[in-house]
Write a structure and sequence with these properties.
With 89 residues, this protein is mainly alpha-helical. Helix content is 51%, strand content 0%.
């Protein structure tokens, strides 16, 4: 690739550097980015999240996210994942 030197001028993650050196289609699914490791939200989980949000939204002086995480039926979701999903919904 004659224009590869231009890519070296910008910051890269280790996964991108590996992809550059081994070829642009070298990354297999599930490697490199964290987005591919995050399990997608099922419609049932979204519905539970919606119900928990509306239930704990009006609680005074409490952390809504902490209450949602404590009552979420599927363990393993992080605070950041819950926030991103609530914003997306």
């Amino acid at each position: 690739n004659k224009k590869a030197f231009v890519e070296l001028l910008f910051w890269k993650s280790p996964a991108i550097v590996c992809e550059m050196t081994k070829g642009y289609s070298s990354l297999q699914e599930g490697e490199g980015t964290t987005r591919s490791r995050v399990p997608p939200w099922t419609p049932q989980e979204e519905q539970e999240l919606r119900e928990l949000y509306w239930k704990y939204k009006e609680v005074e002086g409490g952390d809504i996210l902490a209450a949602i995480l404590a009552h979420l039926p599927v363990p393993g979701r992080t605070r950041r994942q819950v926030v991103k999903q609530l914003v997306r919904m």
